[in-house]
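INTERNAL AUDIT FORM
Audit reference: QA-55
Scope: verify that the stored structure record matches its stored sequence.
Auditor: D.O.
Record contents follow.
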Amino acid sequence: MKYYHLILTLAVVLAIPTIALAKEKGTGATADVEATVKKIEQETLDSLLKSDTSAFEKYLASDYLGIGPDGVTQNKSELLADIKSGTLKLESSTMSDIKVQVADPDMAVVVYRTNDKGTYKGKDVTGEYRWLDVFVKRDGKWQIAIDQGTQIKP
């Protein structure tokens, strides 16, 4: 029994540095994912402000599902058409309060706030919004699979 406790204690003592090192590496990987998805968020916003779909074509998953602040769902081609046609037009938008939760190496959730000035389907959509974007990593590339926006009432 003495040897059992000694072996168990020795195993725990030897495992601690390995666990600490793995945790440090995980933190670095998490930081890399956070930086990558924040960069994608900024690129898509910049693209939208120019009524340019290139970033959306690059970063939206082929099976993308968007849920707008009006509760209506859109697929990738519908969102791209709204941007190209000017149906969705933002004059200005600023992102703030960005939080990234890395769920696993191939999935992250981003929650952020925007202050927007613009129109959608001819209606003024100026205001503050809270957004939730789900990112997935497919074939080594981060993509937005799902997003949902909610207007923050004054």
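Auditor finding: record pair retrieved intact. DSSP finds three helices and seven strands in the chain.
Action required: none
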